[in-house]
Amino acid sequence: MNHFLELKSVSYSYQTMEAETLALKEISLQIEEGEFISIVGPSGCGKSTLLNLICGLIQPDEGEILLKGKAMDQTAMNIGYMLQKDHLFEWRTIYSNVTLGLELQHKLDSDSRMRVDNMLKTYGLSEFAASRPSQLSGGMRQRAALIRTLAILWMMMGIILAAIGCGYILKKENKTAILVTHDLSEAISVGDRVVILSSRPAKIRNIVALDFDKNLTPLQRRNAKPFASYFNTIWKELQENECS
Ligand code: ADP
Ligand code: MG
Predict the structure, then answer these.
(1) Which of 23, 49, 76, 118 is the most exposed place for a label (fewest CB within 10 A)?
(2) Residues with CB under 5 A from ligand 2 (ion)
(3) Distance (Å, rounded) from C-alpha 139 to C-alpha 133?
């Protein structure tokens, strides 16, 4: 059976005039539908490079990335990329920011408007539909950015790639997701598994499966028994890594 997303021995290096920098080395990883993967690793190890490869912004030098068994350029799978910076446009209202993707894809109709309205309600932004981004708090802006991403992904099976800070809101959506963060608590509160990368060139150092009760919220996880031991285990691995 095909995995939802599979990385097969993926390597990537950056070429500059002066040097070649190997960023990722033979990364192999399988992700199943609905899974939430947190990726942690030392700064500069290659985390952003990995996200850029998965969303097709750059291509691997070696190895391949398959979505449901097919090369990425052959699938209609949608990938939503949420960055730490929300990239909301100040000259547009919140409503016209969250519908921008739909508008660009000519998918803004009564159905999609209804879904957007529901999400604005769910995320407590209905009253701010006519506001400008600068009138919202940081958390509200991130929720608006999430709605914009989800609005486009809605119809298709999608995978969401996210940067630090987006984990908690993303968790609610039960989508297949990959979160890159250096906030270990965030990684452990939301993930099904935590992938630990080595320092550059990034290799997979370890994968820790998180065994919490199914229905715990991220906050409840933080207070649950296994949290501290996961935190210590992963923290230790990251430290050893930085020193080696
Ligand atoms: P992380 O997100 O884990 O901090 P990155 O994926 O951004 O790391 O970068 C991994 C390594 O690749 C960095 O240490 C850097 O040296 C190198 N790198 C990243 N972007 C470029 C680039 N555009 N040109 C050359 N080297 C780069
Ligand atoms: Mg980065």
Answers:
(1) 76
(2) 48
(3) 11
Task: Provide residues with CB under 6 Å of ligand 1.
Answer: 14, 16, 21, 23, 41, 43-49, 200
> How buried is residue 125: exposed, middle or buried, by Cβ count under 10 Å (0-12/13-18/19+)?
buried
> Counting Cβ atoms within 10 Å, is residue 74 exposed (0-12), middle (13-18) or buried (19+)?
exposed
pLDDT by 10-residue block (mean), the chain, 244 residues: 92 92 96 92 91 84 92 67 80 95 88 90 93 93 87 65 68 81 90 95 96 91 96 93 60
**Measured between alpha carbons, how far is 133 from 74 in angstroms, rounded to an integer?**
36
Q: Are 235 and 185 in contact (CB under 8 A)?
A: no
User: Which atom of ligand 1 has the smallest separation from the CA of 49?
Assistant: 6
The structure tokens listed for 59 are 């291509």
Note whether 33 and 157 are within 8 A (CB): yes
